[in-house]
Amino acid sequence: MSKGRVTSGMRPTGSLHLGNLLGALNNWVVLQEEYECFYFIVDWHALTTPGGGDAVGYENVVDLRSKIREMAIDWVSAGLDPNKSSMFVQSHVPEVAELHLLFSMITPLGWLERNPTYREMVLGYKIESPSYGLLGYPTLQSADILMYKGDFVPVGRDQEAHVNMTRDLAQRFNSLYGKDVFPITQALLTDVPKVPGLDDVNRKMSKSAGNHIAISFDEDETTAKIRDMFTDPLKIRKNDVGHPDGCVVYAFHGIYNGKELEVVRSECEAGDRGCVDCKMQLSGRMNEALRPIRSRRKELEEKPGMIDEILRAGAGKARAIARETLAEVREVMNLPPRKGL
Ligand code: TRP
Ligand code: SF4
User: Fold this and answer.
1) What pLDDT, on a 0 to 100 scale, did the predictor assign at position 52?
2) What residues does ligand 1 touch, defined as CB less than 6 Å away?
3) 319 to each of 2, 229, 293, how far by Cα in Å?
4) Minimum-distance ligand 2 atom for the alpha carbon of 264
5) How far apart, in whole angstroms, are the C-alpha atoms of residue 66 and residue 53?
6) Distance in Å, CA 218 to ligand 2 centroid
7) How many A from CA of 283 to the centre of ligand 2?
8) What is the dihedral of CA 57, 67, 31, 197, to 10 degrees?
9) Tens digits of per-residue pLDDT, 97-118?
10) Interacting residues of 108 by C-beta distance below 8 A, sequence separation 6+
11) Beta pairing class for 5-10 and 36-41
């Protein structure tokens, strides 16, 4: 029996890295066992910012389609099961755009202007004249969630404010139109292992920083990346005493080699472990853990029709629910019925 509905989305950043896998995807995979899940690739949200470099945005749409595909391939490779979760592209459910429009009528500007992510984006991208779409980002996100009547939204802390606004909007809608059409959504802020960048234990792994290991890398590329990881700069020879706490290799042993972590630490601190060997050992463990995911990835790449079919079927399931929700919304708002709704 399902304990409720889970909804979550990701911006189409293309192929995913270990930070995405350990931080979000693995958790999504666990949730699909107990909840009815809706996972979507938010192509509209990607257009709220200008983009640039490798990032998609309204000024940089060239790779949008391939990035959607690459990401969907990683989702399935990591274990999202199309029989358990509906996976789809946000804009393949155009009903969401109508819900967003209706929500925009009841979203106070103050809520949007106070949104911390909005301020960060405007400052971060040095946007001189922010668009209407960027300001409305959380209203669109609310439509994503409430369209499927999402009870829970697994997201990182940075998204908490958006989920809170979704609750406020649901409450406002329900009270304005005198019916509990929408649930009061809850964020699921799960404790996830902090995945450091390859260059610094205190920086997050990210594609834009280029300090990542992608799921799509092959084993040799992965090993090469591990060879370049930041280690204790004071440890030059094998028998120098090391300081594992500032070392990226050690942090990854914590994730991929938990059983031997204490040995790694004591040998490092005693000067009984060389960094080259330490890295080779990590590379073995990490590649082993990623092998099944990478082999599924290969299969999906070889049969391009498969991922399209998964996304098509997912959109079909999502759309059926979206139509029901939208019909209910239009009814309580006294909008005249129309064909199919
Ligand atoms: N704003 C989210 C992010 O940047 C992506 C997103 C869009 C989302 N719609 C959503 C997340 C709905 C959860 C639920 O990561
Ligand atoms: Fe880091 Fe391992 Fe070298 Fe110690 S031995 S500094 S843990 S790479």
Assistant:
1) 86
2) 7-9, 11, 42, 45, 141, 144-145, 153, 155, 159, 162
3) 20, 45, 29
4) 7
5) 15
6) 23
7) 13
8) -80
9) 999 999 999 999 999 999 999 9
10) none
11) parallel
List the one residue out of 150, 138, 134, 39 whose CA is nearest residue 92: 39
> Long-range pairs for 237-242 at CB < 8 Å and ≥24 separation?
237/274, 238/271, 238/273, 238/274, 238/275, 238/276, 238/277, 239/271, 239/272, 240/271, 241/269, 241/270, 241/271, 242/268, 242/269, 242/271, 242/273, 242/275
Mean pLDDT of 278-294: 98
Distance CA 245, CA 234 (A): 13
210 backbone φψ class: left, alpha, beta (φ>0; ψ -120 to 50) = left
Indicate if ligand 2 lies below 6 Å from the C-beta of 229: no
Confidence band (pLDDT; 50, 70, 90) for 339?
confident
Nearest to 88 by CA among 40, 44, 141, 32: 40
* Nearest ligand to the C-alpha atom of residue 100: 1
Q: Is the CB of 232 under 6 A from ligand 2?
A: yes
| Ligand closest in space to the Cα of 117 | 1
Which distant-in-sequence residues (6+ apart) come within 8 Å of 207 by Cβ? 13, 14, 17, 54, 214
Give me ligand 1 centre to Cα 20, in Å.
13
Q: What share of the chain is helix, strand, coil (3-state, %, to 5)?
A: 55, 10, 35
